[in-house]
Amino acid sequence: VAAERQEMLKKFNLPHFRKVASVAMGEPDEGYISKQHERTLKEKQEKSDAEWKVKKEQEERKKQAEQRQKQLAEMRKKADEARKQAAEAAKKKREEQMKKIEDAKKAKAEAERKAKEAAEKKAKGEEVEEETADAPEEKAEEAKEEAAPMEVEKKEEEQAKEEAKEE
Predict the structure, then answer these.
(1) How far from 105 is each of 50, 117, 128, 146, 148, CA to CA, in Å?
(2) Could you give the C-alpha distances from 145 to 14, 150, 151, in angstroms and in order?
(3) Residue spans with biased composition (Basic and acidic residues) (predicted)?
(4) Which pLDDT tens digits describe the chain residue by residue (167 residues)?
(5) Is residue 112 domain-resident?
(6) 17: in domain
């Protein structure tokens, strides 16, 4: 034991180390014990508070992340619905325009047929009721004019799709 002490003294052989030790034996007084208990209790409480704060912050971050995910999912859902509605509306407009064009073609064909019949009746010398031959042509022109805005609407739909992708 004495040799170990001599070795230990060699390790601490600097001027700021003291070579004298004081030893206290027995039970400490009540004041000292209560101060130590308070100090250890305070340290434990601080440690517990720090852990609680960290846990609370993690829960808050997790909650915010979940809320953000819900928000993103909702935005995607709304964007999908908007795209579907836009596509549906465009499809309806195309169908209506195609129907108008078909009606115009049918009216034009009907007018040509009537004109042919009228020409045949004239050739035979019968009386012919005059109808305006311009009406079917006007309908065909209107259908073509309505098809032109369709191209503009397609461009608007493409822009809307690009904006949705960016989000």
Answers:
(1) 81, 18, 23, 15, 18
(2) 103, 9, 11
(3) 35-126, 136-167
(4) 899 988 988 888 788 887 787 888 889 999 999 999 999 999 999 999 999 999 999 999 999 999 999 999 999 999 999 999 999 999 999 999 999 999 999 999 999 999 988 888 888 876 545 444 455 556 556 655 655 555 656 677 777 777 766 65
(5) yes
(6) no
Segments forming the whole domain that contains residue 162 = 56-122+135-167
Look at the block and give the residue holding tokens 């601490």. Answer: 12
Report the greatest alpha carbon distance in the chain: 150
Element (H, E) at 13: none
Q: Count the domains in the chain.
A: 1
* 43 within a domain of the structure (yes/no): no
In-domain check, residue 149: yes
DSSP labels for 103-119? HHHHHHHHHHHHHHHHH
Q: Are 90 and 153 in contact (CB under 8 A)?
A: yes
